[in-house]
Write a structure and sequence with these properties.
Layout: H1 3-19, H2 26-41, H3 47-59, H4 66-81
Helix pairs in contact: 1-2, 1-4, 3-4
């Protein structure tokens, strides 16, 4: 897994968010993706800290948005494989 794969996942996630009809969850999910991209771009990603925060925030979306959650889970696996 590479950073390119991670970027592909984030692009897919942005696509899913664009189609999301739940106007209440969209801003929170977009903020989550923006935070993730900002940390990765700045190379500030701190291993388990970033993954744990992402996992915690993903849990709140699991039931309402299973496709978004699946992509976020792939992001977490990719981060783990990259040692982040």
């Amino acid at each position: 897994m590479s950073r390119e794969h991670l970027q592909d996942l984030l692009d897919r996630l942005r696509g899913e968010l664009a189609e999301l009809e739940d106007r209440d969850s969209r801003p929170r999910l977009e903020a989550l993706v923006a935070d993730l991209e900002r940390e990765l771009a700045a190379d500030q990603a701190e291993g388990a800290g970033l993954t744990q925060e992402l996992k915690r925030r993903v849990e709140s979306f699991e039931v309402e948005h299973p496709r978004v959650t699946a992509i976020l889970n792939d992001v977490m696996v990719t981060l783990s494989n990259l040692g982040i």
